[in-house]
Amino acid sequence: MNSLLNKDNFDREISTLKEKTKRALMGIEDVHWNLWSTDNFIEKYLPIWMQTSISETLLAIINNRKILSWLLNFDIKKFRSLHDVILSDTGVPSLDKKGYKIPDPE
């Protein structure tokens, strides 16, 4: 019987929909964790790269010993602070995004 109300057809369609829903939810969860890890990197690790780039540039162009000494002292304090942030990293970002929030995959 080729009826749209056939129980076997209905069960197959429900099974297909459940499988597609399961795959979609897995995809959503994957995107969620990718965004989470990217936010964590941006918040905690990118500042070290930025500070390194700035410091390397300044060290390359500054000839004044007094200013170089001040810069090196600043770098020691700054890198210690950035390093402490990484040491306390729990993997959970707290990045303050303007008008954007990662939805929870529930």
Short description:
The chain has three helices and no strands. The protein has helices at 7-44, 46-61, 65-87.
**Poorly predicted residue ranges:** none
Rg of Cα set: 26 Å
Q: How do the helices and strands follow one another from N- to C-terminus?
A: HHH
Q: What is the overall pLDDT average? A: 87
Instruction: State the distance separating the first and last CA atoms.
Output: 40 Å
Helix/strand class: mainly alpha
Strand content: under 5%
**For the report, how would you describe the main beta sheet?**
none
- Number of distinct beta strands: 0
What is the number of helical segments per DSSP (H or I, 4+ residues)? 3
Fraction of residues in helices?
over 70%
Shape: rod-shaped
Short key terms for the protein model shown above:
106 residues; mainly alpha; 3 helices
